[in-house]
Amino acid sequence: NLDLSWILELSNRIDALKEKIHQSEKTWSLVIEEIGGFKKSILDLNERQKPELQQRLLDAQQIIKDRYERSFREGQGEQRFLEEMADKATPDRIAIAYRSQLGLRQNAVNTCERELTNARSHYNQAYNYTFDVSASDNSRYEQQLEELSQQKLPAYKEQIENAKNMAYEQFANQFLAEMKASIYDVQSRISELNRALRDNRFGTERFSFQITENQEYKRFYDMINDPMLMDGYSLMSQMFLDKHGPAIEELFSKIVDTGSDMSSDARQELERNIRLFTDYKTYLRFDMISTDEQDNRQRLSRTLLKKSGGETQTPFYVAMLASFAQLYHVNDPKWNCSRLIIFDEAFSKMDGERIRESIQLLKQTGFQCILSAPPEKIGDIAPLVDRNIAVIRRGRSSFTRSFDAKQMVAAYAESDDLHEDL
């Protein structure tokens, strides 16, 4: 009559626990097996994959180090990489995005390598070197550059500086010598012109030319004509520099090129200065002096704008005749030559009296002159010259006729006499 159901319940619980123990032992075996796999994977990672990846990392870092400067890596390069990672999330995506650009860059690199090889070849040929043109680095050429820049270039610089100073001094001395010679030459020519004019009068006036230094550039004029340059001193002599140093520096700073990096405006200013300061006339002032019978003197520079047209033409003809007189050596008997002068629109603004004075001066100096004048001047010119030729236009044709002014005057006088008799 005992109730043994609890024994059955215990037996069932025992069976369930045995099954659970069995399942746990199976799970334990699987875990042990999995742990063994993990241990094997860890061993493979530590002994094979990790060293391999570390070496690849070192190689990649070395490649980056070789290809890019440290300042770029730590600055712009790292910043750009972080920006791309934020946008594309993984390096693989970055690589895919830049793969096409890499091809273009690689082509550019190949082109640069070819150009580098060609440049090396040309360098070797030009300077007879046998450096390896296909070397992976530029160390041999850099070594050559170091040798040239640190050893030979300083010596060359000293030689160049000495040559530059010598060339500058030679140029400056030659420039001053040419300016001085030009000034002396024009002074001599002015003296010759004045001698040619000395014995000739234009009516009641005598003319002469005057040359003086230009006060605006007197400091340069005094430097150019300093007697020290004729006494053995050069431009760079200390005594000469003490006397004219500021003028020398100012003058040559205006006409010497200061480099190829000048602006367009500075270059134009330099060209204007060269034209101005290399012309000897810049340092001089020219004038013409007229002297009347009472020895009253007048300067053309002061009276030119105050006189009439005929009066202003007078100095022009005087200057022209004096210049031709000098050119033709009028007063030198050894010069037996034609002394021809041709004037177009001659004496266009002169009155009859001044025309007669001009032609008289032409005759006194012995010139053979051809005058082209408008019809209204025939009455003043024709009686004073040796031969007259009239140019007559009829329609589209032109022809010439010569006439004797004296015969025409005589014939006109006879007609007047005949008229009076009648």
Q: Which structural class do the helices and strands define?
A: mainly alpha
What's the rounded overall pLDDT mean?
A: 82
State the helical fraction: 55-70%
- The spatial strand order of the largest sheet comes to 1-2-3
The biggest beta sheet, please? 3 strands, antiparallel
How much strand?
5-15%
The oligomeric state is single chain
User: How many helical elements?
Assistant: 13
The beta-strand count equals: 7
**Ends: how far apart?**
209 Å
Secondary-structure element string: HHHHHEHHHEEHHEHEHEEH
Shape: elongated
Question: What is the CA-atom radius of gyration, in angstroms?
Answer: 53 Å
Stretches where pLDDT is under 50 for at least 5 consecutive residues are: 418-422
List keywords for this structure.
two-stranded parallel ribbon; 422 residues
Structure description:
- The protein is mainly alpha-helical and 422 residues long.
- Helices cover 65% and strands 10% of the residues.
- The protein has helices spanning 5-67, 70-88, 91-97, 99-127, 139-198, 218-224, 238-255, 264-277, 300-303, 309-327, 352-364, 378-381, 405-421; strands at residues 206-213, 284-291, 297-299, 340-344, 368-372, 388-394, 397-403.
- It has a three-stranded antiparallel sheet with strand order 1-2-3. It has a two-stranded parallel sheet with strand order 4-5. It has a two-stranded antiparallel sheet with strand order 6-7.
- α5 crosses α10 (309-327).
- The protein is elongated and about 200 Å long.
- It starts with a helix and ends with a helix.
